[in-house]
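[Q] Does anyone have a clean structure-token version of this?
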Amino acid sequence: KTARVLVYKHTGGTATGTSRQLRPIHIDIHGGAFIGGQSESTAPIDERVARETGAVVLGLTYPFAPENVFPTAIDEVDALIQYITEHAEERWGANPELLTVGGFSAGGNMALASTQQPARHGSSRTAFKGCVLFCGVLELRLSPWQKPRPEGMPDKDPVAVLMPLFDAYPEQARKKHFDDPRLSPMLAARETLPPRILLCVPGIDILLEEQMTFAERINEEDRNAGEPGRVEVFLEKDQNHAYLELPDVIVKPEIKERAWNRAVAFLRDTYALHGWTWTA
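[A] Here you go.
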């Protein structure tokens, strides 16, 4: 079986630290409502992460609905990540023990869901050290049209006609897997999650409530356990779900740059905590 993976590896910087001089790995999963999309859509941020952190960035894709429903896509993602960790050093000079994951929208769902594999959390040597989500879909117990609409959303949704198609991935599995965090990763137990999580959240989005609820729940559980909250929320309250992908004439570059800057800094800090620093 073959899979298409985009690889970003920057050679112009200098690494220091104690991390065996093998590069960190950042896995990025594109969006597309579970029904389409391609890894090239995240190329600008993936190339930047590779350049500014020194990580090997791997852009993954997955089988699309409606032909492939849950759990086909997350099973494929989990299998790809397992392959990556087994071959990281020989193929890319990368460290399977310094692994982060991220994703956009539907890809954010699978990024967080992939933490549920035993090899990706807890004391496993290949556990994720951090997770970065952009507009992540965390709640699939509800269909899109059932989700709360925050203030600022248009009265008539321009993509309403597509909502049943957006529900194609979870719809058939929802009843059987209602409480499965691989479907709705907002249900994940705190013990299964990476020690650092960044949520980049637009305020004008039906996904706002689920992301904020997840962050509040995990941070409260962390504090109750005597630990600092692990989930950071970077909120752009006046932006919509697609703002990071819209042309600069619609969303000013400096607005989008704020999220990109925070994500890159978050990953740099995560790697530094584990002995990897990089000068571009």
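[Q] Thanks! Anything notable?
[A] The domain at 5-279 is CATH 3.40.50.1820 (Rossmann fold).
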